Amino acid sequence: MIQRDFWRVLRSFAKDCNAGYVVIVDDAPDHFEDRFIDIDGKRMFDLRLNHRYELGLREVWLQSSVTSTLPEGATYGDSEQLGDGFERYFVTM
Question: From start to end of the chain, where are the E strands?
Answer without folding.
Answer: 21-25, 36-39, 42-45, 57-63, 76-83, 86-91
